[in-house]
Design brief:
Helix content: 25-40%
Number of helices: 9
Strand order of the largest sheet: 3-2-1-4-5-6-9
CATH superfamily: NAD(P)-binding Rossmann-like Domain
CATH class: Alpha Beta
Structural class: alpha/beta
CATH architecture: 3-Layer(aba) Sandwich
Number of domains: 1
Strand content: 15-25%
CATH topology: Rossmann fold
Radius of gyration: 19 Å
Distance between the termini: 28 Å
Length: 254
Amino acid sequence: MGERAAVLVTGGTGRLGRHAVDSLRSRGHDVRVLSRRPGDDHVVGDLATGEGLAAALDGVDTVVHLATSRSKDIGQTRNLLDAMAGSGSKSPAHLIFISIVGVDRIPYGYYRDKVSSEQAIEASGVPHTIIRVTQFHGFVHEVLEAQRRLPVTLVLPVSAQTIHMPEVAERLADLVDAGPSGRVADLGGPEQLTLREYAQQWQAARGVKRPIWALHLPGKAIAAFAAGHHMSGLPGAGTVTYREFLVEGATNEP
């Protein structure tokens, strides 16, 4: 384990963020959460405007940047980088950025924004670590749960390599301990399943049996997913399978 660090987590009230905060605190780190609203162990700041970021960064050794807006990530990342570079310290804090496997190979707007954020971080001069992660178990689970009242289950004819969110949080804590490492190896789940197989496991866990229909949609992004560009390859570093996630009652990814 590394030395005790003062860590600022953006997106710390989100699902992954809460796991990351718990993992970091379990290792003895002093963790504060960036939020637009006051709260326990919160520091108030706004990534969208940059307001309050300088004060939030005061005394921080590492920033774990997990906040995402689905549309304005690059603007928020640039505001954070500007605040870190102008913090007045001799050495800016270490910035850890979580990205997604395949962002540079899949023509999807949200992914392009992630690539832009990666590039801005690499060009900033701020000590950094970038890790790309496959989709979470909870993402596929939410898509399936949203269909629970339909007479059929709809899936795309693609595969996925999902990973358990607490395992991602533990890897982020490892990266805090390791210090600036640049672009590190992609992090993927323990198995590659078709979305039909995910749906079959989900139905079995729910005790239902419905037709599973494949939606064949056009487009370059769908073709890139079908080609598997969003998967890291096997063996993945994750150990908890989707079936095990279901057995746990899907409670660890609220």
